[in-house]
Amino acid sequence: MKRFLKRAHLFLYHLIVVFFLVLLYPFLYYFSRKSERYPQLNRWRRFYSQVSSVTAGFFFRYYFEAPIDWSRHYIICANHTSNLDIPAISYLVKGNFAFMGKDDLLGNPVTGLFFRTIDIPLNRNSKMSAFRAFKRAGDYLKQGISLVIFPEGRISDGYPPQLGPFKIGPFRLAIEHNVPIIPISIPVNYKRMWDDGSMYGTTPGTSDIYVHAPVDTNRLNMEDADDLRITVYNIINSKLA
Asked: What is the mean pLDDT of residues 59-77?
């Protein structure tokens, strides 16, 4: 019975996501057509993330280690265990921002609109794709646009998921462009929805999101990238136990 209810809730969640996507699509599409409209696109993305999650019974409670000055831009790094991580961070981040993620998301009916416009698709098996993605990411940072990157690069295959090793790219990027990193710990989203929910279904409830103090990079050089990666890994992992 419990498994049936989780499956039923997953189906309900998909209906809710599609319903609000259809309802809001004219606004999302309009603001996605030109890059100068991207700040408004992100406002609608935040609203879409909140209304679809709350309607399905998913609530996000944020804890801030220090105040965040959203007039600045950042590289935001979080652990990744669930599709719910995307709306959780979309609602959190103020100002203009873009996700960097796998190019499979181009074909997703929900994320496709964003990854064909404001977000940055990346094929990690292609050096050319990676070069283009990080070049575009660097251009965004120069324009004052924040980046959201899941440094593990994937969702763990094991359940319960463990924090995997981080890719070095986001940390080189932060040092190169002298941009602070905001580490984010998301310890229980996988209990609400692991990965896309297809294996265990979904369970409504509240997820705690820990937003750590920004880590400055202004005194670092490229030789410090690995140490920065370890530092951010340990910060995120500190709230996952």
From this structure: 97
Domain that holds residue 91: 2-237
Instruction: Give residue for tokens 């646009």.
Output: 145
Q: SS3 sequence, 49-64? A: HHHHHHHCCEEEEEEE
Secondary-structure breakdown of the chain: helix, strand, coil percentages, each rounded to the nearest 5: 45, 15, 35
Q: Tell me, what CATH number does 94's domain have?
A: 3.40.1130
How many domains are there within the chain?
1
Q: What is the pTM of this model?
A: 0.94
164 vs 52, 80, 157, CA distance in Å? 29, 9, 10
Per the CB < 8 A criterion, the answer to whether 194 and 82 are in contact is yes
Instruction: Return d(Cα 216, Cα 134) in angstroms, integer.
Output: 20
Report how far residue 174's alpha carbon sits from residue 170's, in angstroms, rounded to the nearest whole number.
6
Q: Is the pLDDT of residue 168 over 90?
A: yes
**Alpha-carbon distance 81 to 91, whole Å?**
17
Structure tokens at 57: 């019974």
- In sequence order, what E strands does the chain have? 58-64, 75-78, 97-102, 120-122, 146-149, 181-185, 205-211
What six digits make up the tokens of 17? 């996501």
Query: Which of 105, 17, 92, 6 minimizes the C-alpha distance to 55?
Result: 17
